[in-house]
Amino acid sequence: MRILIALGGNALLRRGEPMTATNQIANIRRAATQIARLAHGNQLIVAHGNGPQVGLLALQAAAVGARSAMPLDVLDAESEGMIGYLLEQELANALPNDREVATLLTRVEVQADDPAFDHPTKPIGPVYAKEDAERLAVRHRWSIAADGAGYRRVVASPKPHRVVELRAIQWLLDRDAIVIAAGGGGIPVTVAADGKAHSGVEAVIDKDLCSALLAADLGADLLLIATDVDAVYENWHTSRESALREITVTALRAMFFPAGTMGPKVEAAAEFVSRTGQPAVIGSLDQIEQMANGTAGTRVTRGA
């Protein structure tokens, strides 16, 4: 079976945790242990988020001055390499020596006129108190938005259209490598009128939407979205909340989920299932194996 596993940025660095290398490695090790249990007899592609990490890199870049700061597409690539290396190392440690793991920097085409560039929604970096977020927004010319009880910087998140390195990923899968790709939603690029030359753009693509696109284009049998909650919940954080265990695309799309949290995951799962007819599952990082065998998470199907 071919499975694409999408690891959320908040699963690799849990909400409220200090943004330290020790914490990230511990969470990545937990994920790698789970993923390794699916490796036998399956082809695996692993994607991951980068919201907390790329936000921290952007803060560090801003600290050296605007003239020296790297643009977001370069920071996307930097975070993709950093998290990919940690995942690759922990996965290799958890797997037999004869199973190869490869991390691939992945460019993803977006449209230059995507309306997302005028309406930033993707949260990156740390969570701040409102007063601190407003002060930083003025200083760095950020857009900010509420995220839970706090506030975070938000950036443009254009829709992914094509994974440039698709053939390279397929080549690696054909040779039984586990491929870590499209990290952080990939590196956003636009394509010139000749259809060949690419240019990086200031944005962070949503990891879940890119994962759905990549999974569909690779003919995956299952899209598995691992996050920091154990399922999709109806009426979340109310007295009427309840976990959804199995649901059709039509029923799921009739519900509302916030854009900054569960919304993109639900949209990605629905898009993949609608396009391919194959199932998607959303659930906890600690239950990846159970999600794959159908005993945990929220399973999304096309239905009758």
Automatic annotation (TrEMBL):
Top-rank taxon, per record: Bacteria
Single GO term (MF): ATP binding
PROSITE patterns per the UniProt record, alphabetical: SHIKIMATE_KINASE
Entry keywords, A to Z: ATP-binding, Kinase, Nucleotide-binding, Transferase
Residue ranges of every copy of the Aspartate/glutamate/uridylate kinase domain listed in the record: 1-283
Gene Ontology terms: biological process: L-arginine deiminase pathway
Pfam families with a match to the protein in the record: AA_kinase
Cellular component GO terms, alphabetical: cytosol
InterPro entries reported for this sequence: AceGlu_kinase-like_sf (IPR036393), Asp/Glu/Uridylate_kinase (IPR001048), Carb_kinase (IPR003964), Shikimate_kinase_CS (IPR023000)
PANTHER family the UniProt entry points to: CARBAMATE KINASE (PTHR30409), CARBAMATE KINASE-RELATED (PTHR30409:SF1)
Family statement drawn from the similarity comment of this UniProt entry: Belongs to the carbamate kinase family.
Name the record gives this protein: Carbamate kinase
Organism: Paraburkholderia phenazinium
